[in-house]
Specification:
single chain; alpha/beta; Spore Coat Polysaccharide Biosynthesis Protein SpsA, Chain A; 2 domains; 7-stranded mixed beta sheet; two-stranded parallel sheet; 11 helices
């Protein structure tokens, strides 16, 4: 067998460790060695590197290493060479298809996922008789080292979307470090969009037994993060597909008051999510994916938040699935107009309440925001999405 085909013959592994890579030449050999050093002595395991044709020759470096490394008892290594960068989720699926173990572990190659946790993942599957074990940053005992405030906010916001939008109950559904029994994947049709295959499992196999264990996430020391605007876009696409997959059939609520309050609460929830989109996109364009002037970045953030608010309200709040070009652009124009009008109403109200009626600014601001938000909801309900106001 050639280096490109597998290098080291594999035994029937009990545990298969899937390691997707892209430009990880400075980390990959160290992680393979560390995995071997930390494996429990009573199991056989295989590490499968899935490389997406890395320009820095990550896959070739693994080939050369495997030609010369001495075989370690109970531990074999393999490499899959893919011809292009096709995404993290599809890379993991490629590794799983090649795997022989009845237990699968997924982890990163940059030491952010400590190999020392692997025995705890394996032991927890046995101890708690569960199907899936997640190494969690967000339960008691878990933490993150080395992240900027911006990165922490982005992670929390993505986690909030998964939990509130998709009904996921785990504390860290965005973890990339987890172990599961291979049978869990039976019957799942993966979309393989984006980088969080765990989220697909949690949504599409909602009845499985899950355990979370704490660990400390260590920010990478060498190499660069793969987080960029395309990653965020893929994540939102994935969430939307999963939302449609898990969306229950709603029974028709006959009480007008309940329907009105339900849609109002969704509308304002979307508004809150728009704040997060605005904040994250603005920061990305200031010091993340580009280095725009802060006012230009803020304008992009505002446009992005208005656009996502419109799409979420159209599909989630008002259940409008008609995306014909003429209809959608017309609705979008009205939505932008009413959102801008709401901002103007807020400014005028604050001015008059403070200047004419001598109210304190915090009280005036609350009254103005509530009035503008209520008016924005009613106008969009009636004129943008053509619904009765009360109902």
């Amino acid at each position: 067998m050639s280096a490109a085909e597998g290098v080291i013959l594999r035994e029937n592994a009990q545990v298969s460790i899937i390691i997707p890579t892209y430009n990880e030449s400075r980390n990959i050999i160290g992680i393979l060695k560390s995995i071997g050093e930390n494996l429990p002595k009573n199991i056989t395991a295989e590490a499968i590197v899935v490389d997406d044709n890395s320009p820095d020759s990550t896959g070739k470096i693994v080939d050369e290493y495997l030609k010369n490394v001495k075989k370690i008892a109970g531990y074999t290594m393999d490499v899959i060479h893919r011809t292009s960068k096709n995404g993290l989720s599809s890379a993991i699926l490629s590794g799983i298809q090649r795997s022989r173990g009845d237990t699968i572990i997924v982890m990163d190659s940059d030491f952010s996922h400590p190999p020392q946790i692997i025995p705890k993942l394996i032991e927890s599957l046995k101890k708690y008789q569960c199907d899936l074990v997640i190494a969690s940053r967000y339960i008691s005992g878990g933490k993150i080292n080395g992240w900027t405030l911006k990165r922490k906010i982005m992670s929390k916001f993505a986690t909030l979307i998964a939990k509130k939008g998709l009904g996921v109950k785990t504390k860290d559904p965005m973890s990339g470090f987890f172990a599961f029994k291979k049978h869990v994947l039976k019957g799942i049709n993966f979309d393989a969009i984006g980088y969080k295959i765990l989220l697909e499992i949690l949504v599409k196999k909602s009845g499985i037994a899950i355990k979370e264990i704490p660990y400390t996430f260590e920010n990478r020391r060498v190499g660069s993060s793969k987080l960029d605007i395309s990653t965020a876009t893929d994540y939102l696409k994935s969430v939307w597909k999963l939302y449609k997959f898990g969306k229950p059939k709603e029974r028709e609520e006959k009480r007008s008051s309940v329907r009105f309050l339900s849609k109002a609460s969704r509308f304002y929830t979307v508004g809150l999510s728009g704040f997060g989109v605005n904040y994250i996109i603005s920061l990305l364009f200031v010091g993340g994916i580009s280095d725009l002037w802060y006012l230009h970045a803020t304008l992009i953030g505002i446009i992005a938040s208005i656009t996502t608010n419109f799409l979420l309200n159209k599909t989630w709040t008002f259940h409008d699935r008609d995306f014909s070009k003429k209809r959608t652009f017309k609705q979008y124009g009205k939505f932008v107009t009413f959102s801008s009008l709401g901002g103007l109403v807020q400014l005028v109200m604050v001015f008059y309440l403070v200047d004419e009626y001598q109210l304190s600014y915090p009280i005036a601001l609350v009254l103005a925001v509530l009035s503008a938000a209520f008016g924005n909801f009613v106008l969009n309900k009636k004129y943008t999405f053509k619904e009765k106001v009360w109902g």
